[in-house]
Design brief:
Elements (H helix, E strand, L loop, with lengths): L19 H8 L16 H10 L8 H20 L7 H18 L2 E3 L6 E3 L5 H18 L5 E3 L8 E3 L12 H18 L2
Helix pairs in contact: 1-5, 3-4, 4-5
Length: about 190
């Protein structure tokens, strides 16, 4: 598997481009499409398998898994806030704290050249995966592409998608599924309230 492969997308939506694919795959591990909503990282061993498929090797502890889930949920909060261009200071604080911890251990370094300017990691374990995800998000926030990463606001979804609409107006991972369900629920509530 390619490290930056975002995985399957609902309703044929185009995935996040380039290196943001790793971030999208990381964020959507809360919801396994093949297992009907099961947590992908159900144990340190499951997290180690996910990391191994992306070329990050090494032992994974419960602390590593808890840190990854903490970062994932902070990033998901930011992706949900992207619908309204809102701030999420608590999420930013989590990312700052984790970045200060893992980036030095992972050897997060700038790289320049034909592949484009980017942050890379020198290490290969769980810290490297978190540092690389944070480095990609840092770059995406700097170039404005992060604002297109959104979490579906449907109460039973939350899938993180890349909004390719011209004016960043997409709301749902799938208008056919989550958008229609939300509209139908609003209609039912309106009719029941009469």
């Amino acid at each position: 598997m390619d490290r930056f492969d975002p995985g399957p997308q609902p309703s044929g939506r185009s995935p996040a481009p380039g290196r943001l694919g790793l971030v999208q795959a990381f964020l959507n591990t809360f919801w396994d499409l093949d297992a009907h909503g099961a947590e992908v990282w159900s144990s340190p061993e499951a997290y180690a398998r996910w990391l191994g498929a992306r070329g990050f090797s090494g032992p994974v502890s419960r602390v590593d898994l808890d840190g990854a889930v903490l970062v994932r949920e902070a990033l998901r909060s930011l992706a949900l806030a992207n619908h309204d261009d809102a701030a999420a200071p608590a999420a930013d604080e989590v990312l700052d704290r984790v970045a200060l911890d893992v980036a030095p251990r992972a050897g997060l370094v700038p790289r320049f050249g034909a592949g484009g300017d980017r942050l890379e990691v020198a290490a290969g374990g769980p810290d490297a995966a978190l540092a690389l995800v944070l480095g990609i998000v840092f770059g995406a926030r700097a170039n404005g592409s992060w604002r297109r990463m959104k979490a579906c606001p449907h109460e039973h979804c939350g899938w993180v998608f890349y909004d390719r609409s011209r004016n960043r107006s997409s709301q749902w991972c799938s208008m056919r599924i989550c958008g229609n369900r939300t509209k139908a629920a609003r209609h039912r509530a309106l009719v029941a309230g009469r």
